[in-house]
Write a structure and sequence with these properties.
With about 375 residues, the chain is mainly α. Strand 1 and strand 2 form a beta hairpin.
């Protein structure tokens, strides 16, 4: 299929509305646009450089956890949650204001869903089964838990507007989902067609969002699909690249590009935007890793000034890379030291400028590894 000959799908008359059925994607793709080739080369190079960092940085899983939390928070924010990164890194619901705990739960579910899905790739191929299992985790005990989590939808949904009568876009009828998702899954693993993986996942993300196979969670699972695909096909050794931040910052262009495929059959435009997103996100991820390594060297030098507390400070630092917001009770439990020793250690690290007290309280104070935390806010 040449991209210039692509027909995105057809509208089918349902009861009092028309739904859009996308064309199958499991076939060979070619293009005449040289810009796609140039961007494809740039994206592959940027992704390779990011992957190299994730493979050579010592203890990289500490830092991957923060990438995952940022993705969970950003992807959930696109869907309307109001959790901040300060709240997202907290491990206990009790530390969150009661009116914001539901949003916090959604972000924590997303973190668990992502981590579980990455682990499942060791046992399961990227598949509808894996996505359905991930969806069930994502929606467990939060908003959307009654919208058939872990199953394809069994009713019509829509995007934009308040009902089917004024919807911006109406995905395919639910009776078509099984066949469309089967076609998409075959496309992920079809070794008989010569299509670069970055083009495959660009097309796959568009197709998934167009099918919109679930009653809730489509956006989050569709964005997670990108990372799962890259890891499953060994383009990434670690889940170090997530596009939600780019899509959120360019939300209008993102939705316009997806709509342009459906309205004008312009799949090439979407592929180019997707590749630009890969380049920008991989470059940003690489810079973050570089800044982490620089900070790590600087902070470890600072620890040497803490005298007899330096050893425990080093142990606490390994906790802070995973959980950059702590209280003294957390320090006591994680390091298995006395409450007095925890208070003294935290005070020493505040005086050294490593930790910053964030609450202004005399009790229940929270301390942040601020220089590290701020790397994930850029």
């Amino acid at each position: 299929m040449n991209l210039k000959n692509f027909k995105s799908g057809v509208y089918r008359q349902q009861y009092q509305y028309k739904s859009f059925t996308p064309a199958p994607v499991n076939h060979f793709w070619i293009w005449d646009d040289p810009k796609i080739n140039t961007l494809l080369e740039q994206a592959a190079r940027a992704l390779g450089e990011l992957n190299a960092f994730s493979l050579i940085v010592p203890d990289v899983d500490w830092f991957i956890r923060m990438h995952t939390i940022k993705e969970a928070n950003t992807s959930s924010r696109i869907e309307g949650t109001a959790t901040t990164m300060d709240e997202a890194v907290l491990s206990k619901k009790e530390d969150i204001a009661p009116e914001r705990r539901d949003d916090w739960e959604e972000v924590q579910n997303y973190v668990k869903a992502m981590n579980d899905a990455i682990e499942e790739l060791d046992k399961l191929p990227l598949s509808s089964r894996l996505l359905l299992k991930t969806l069930a985790t994502l929606l467990q005990a939060v908003r959307g838990q009654h919208k058939t989590p872990g199953e394809y939808r069994r009713s019509q949904n829509w995007i934009g507007g308040t009902s089917l009568s004024d919807a911006v876009f109406i995905p395919p009828h639910h009776e078509e989902i099984q066949e469309l998702m089967s076609d998409l899954e075959k496309f992920w693993h079809n070794e008989e067609i010569e299509v670069p993986h970055l083009v495959r996942i660009a097309i796959s993300h568009y197709q998934f969002e167009t099918i919109h196979p679930f009653l809730d969670g489509n956006g989050r699972i569709g964005r997670l699909l990108i990372t799962l695909y890259l890891v499953s096909h060994k383009l990434l050794g670690k889940p170090s690249l997530y596009l939600s931040d780019y899509f959120e910052k360019n939300k209008g262009a993102y939705y316009d590009a997806l709509t342009r495929v459906r309205v004008s059959n312009d799949l090439g435009h979407w592929i180019k935007m997707f590749l630009v997103a890969i380049v920008a996100t991989a470059e940003k991820g690489k810079k973050t890793f570089q800044e982490i390594l620089t900070l790590r060297n600087e902070v470890e030098a600072q620890l040497l000034t803490l005298g007899r507390r330096a050893k425990n400070a080093q142990r606490l630092l390994t906790v802070l890379y995973r959980e950059p917001m702590v209280n003294t009770l957390t320090v006591t439990k994680k390091l298995k030291i006395s409450n007095v020793a925890a208070h003294q250690l935290v005070r020493s690290m505040v005086e050294a400028g490593i930790l910053v007290e964030m609450t202004g309280f005399k009790r229940n104070r929270l301390f942040q590894f601020k220089r590290y935390f701020d790397l994930f806010l850029k």
